[in-house]
Amino acid sequence: MIEPLVFLPGLMCDARLFRPQIDVMSRDRAVTVAPISSGERIEEIASGLLDQLPHRFALAGLSMGGVVALELVRRAPERVSRLCLMATDAQADTPQIAAGREDLIVAARSGRLEEAMRRVVGSDTLAPGPQRIPILNNLLSMAMDLGPELFVRQMRALQRRPDQQGTLRRIKVPTLILCGSHDTLTPVRKHAFMADLIPGAVLQTIENAGHLPTLETPNVVIDALRNWLSVPCRPDYG
């Protein structure tokens, strides 16, 4: 049986973040985009998802979705057959970063959600070129549809998220780390750090992408995911 693929979207994103990948990859396997919209703690979000997801699945998370993915792996490693982390960070917020999120929460609550989102994911976090503004507008459209209440919950969850360096060291499934070379929000060095901690992880840097590689370089991501999905699981991977 072909393992199902579960995508976890980033901050204030939905299935539109993975639309190019869904269109292609759903031709030969079940593909699900699981919302990370419930709870004010990463642990709550992960717990709720485990009740809904397949018994065993390939897991790919981008940005905040990667944060939740690591918590799923920590809680139920036997259910994740392989892992892909994109544009994400395994480390907890520093006190300075956590404090800085308070201004963003105030902005969202006072009707300035678009401004808050632009401060979190600005155009400088994406690769330069004519596609930069349309992709940023796509992101803002998703955020405005999801609304300020979700933004506040997700900010709170990120402020309180656990450090997952220990989880990285215990991962025993085929793991792909994908990052864009222009990503200033979660730069390449953070992905290299994760790859160094995960036994046998593959690190792939995409030259023409920033923080949203699934939209910036969709075909490169599709090829990378296909290669990752084709890697056989060793017997000791379960």
Number of domains: 2
* CATH superfamily descriptor of the largest domain: Alpha/Beta hydrolase fold, catalytic domain
Low-confidence stretches: none
Share of residues in helices? 40-55%
Morphology call:
globular
Share in β-strands: 5-15%
**Structural class by sheet pairing and helices:** alpha/beta
**Largest β-sheet summary:** 6 strands, parallel
Descriptive notes:
This protein is of the alpha/beta class and 238 residues long. Helix content is 47%, strand content 13%. It contains 11 helices and 6 strands. A 6-stranded parallel sheet has the order 2-1-3-4-5-6, with helices on both faces. Helix 2 crosses helix 3 (64-75) and helix 4 (95-109) packs antiparallel against helix 7. 40% of the residues are buried.
In short:
With 238 residues, the chain is of the alpha/beta class. Helices cover 47% and strands 13% of the residues. Helix 4 runs antiparallel to helix 7.
